[in-house]
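tool=predict chain=A
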Amino acid sequence: MTSEREIAASPELSALFGVEIGATLIGQQRVIRRNGVVESVVKSYWLHRSEG
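tool=predict ok
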């Protein structure tokens, strides 16, 4: 199961990405299950890119 949403950059993420705290990032979380049991959770973040 994968979900994606806009998030506000935390102090840690803002330092990693070189953006201001609260800047918009896209966050994705993927939950991997085996036989109904959660095996792993993978979280990814990337910069929100405005069109134009």
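Strands lie at 2-8, 24-34, 37-47. The helical segments are 11-17.
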